[in-house]
Amino acid sequence: MNNKIVVSIDLMGGDYSPLAPVKALELIQETLHYSNCSFILHGNSDAKKLLESSNISKDLYIFNLTNTEVSADDNPLDIMRGKKNNSSMQLSIEDVSQKRAHVAVSSGNTGALMALSIRILGCINGIKRPAIVGTIPTKRGKCVMLDLGGNLECDEKMLLQFALMGSCFAKIILSQENTKNINDNLLNSHKILNKNNFHDKNEEHLIYNIKQNNDISDYNPTVALLNVGVESNKGRNTEKKAFDLLQKSNLNFIGCIEGHHIIEGNADVIVTDGYTGNVVLKSAEGVSNYIRDILKLSVEKNLISKIGGFFLSSSIKQNMEKIRPDKNNGAMFVGLNGIIVKSHGGSKSEGIANAIKTAIMLAENHVNERIINEINCIDFIDKIKNSSVKLLNMLRFNDTPN
């Protein structure tokens, strides 16, 4: 691979394939920031025709023709055992495995994508099972949550590992989000300063702040365990044991939170099992759509509400954008020996484009290397502790009188 970030894309996954992924690439091409990327695209003859008729530069991608695709109805175990070999999904993962691409993106069957990813890439040394990690909008911006459906049942050690990987993910995704918000505020302040003819030191201070805010190394996300109560003695045995492990870890653990605390933004990283996480995610998407429908009905109710809606439309749209599922699309299969990003199966072009942007950001910031370093650091600390215990036991044994 050259210096460009190479993204391998399964064009055949999702409800609106292959049109939606092709349209997503058109949106990506329009963003000049992503000119340092190239793509390997896997799809059938229909996908090829769409690409050829699009305005996407042929210098931007390599196309690989395959007539095999994984459907939403396919059994993940069958796919893992070799059914539908050389599918567009499988080929995109193999690109990562063979170092032809830095990251793969698919909107296809989640179970099949996870099963194939584990078979082809394997897990990072020390990680029991990969998890699905993504972002959820909150009153304070966004939070990271995992597992969102990869593992329906988890033990306490898995939850500890999820917390560690989620923290690494948050350092990249949330720090970029926070930097954008802070920089926007700083730049607005800069405009006010210029308007009032204040320059020199104020401008230097602004530039210094922007540089500081772009450094993710100092960002230490808060981690919370999702539970039925905030008290450590509540919940199942798994949550109780996980609480003890998290409390002893070097993570910025703040304790347990309940479901209604998620939207408040009380924590940066929320850890739970895949069953609970998936229910929370789907519920949040349902509530988002319900709010949108209620607002639409309220505005269209009568003439007065239509007039009020006209004056409030820009404000309503701006706030509704924050909770729109397409805006928060792109979940990573964290814990694998490679970066795999899952786009929602029902995503259209904008949602898939956001998933691709997330994939590029993760690759640019070497998310897997960060996770491996964190795991190695914890293993090193554990080895020191174990060695210290053994040494103390030896000393006690030698000090025992005959």
What is this entry, summarized?
This protein is an alpha/beta fold and 402 residues long. Helices cover 53% and strands 14% of the residues.
Describe it.
Its main location: cytoplasm. Pfam families: FA_synthesis. Pathway: Lipid metabolism; phospholipid metabolism. Homodimer. Probably interacts with PlsY. The chain is α/β, with parallel strands linked by helices. It has a domain at 1-122 and 336-365: Isopropylmalate Dehydrogenase, CATH 3.40.718.10. The chain has helices spanning 19-30, 45-53, 76-80, 88-97, 110-121, 156-195, 200-213, 237-248, 259-262, 274-299, 303-323, 349-364, 367-399; strands spanning 5-10, 37-43, 61-65, 103-106, 131-138, 141-146, 222-226, 252-257, 269-271, 331-334, 339-342. Helix 1 links the parallel strand 1 (5-10) and strand 2. It is globular, with a radius of gyration of 24 Å. Mean pLDDT is 81; it is low at 180-214.
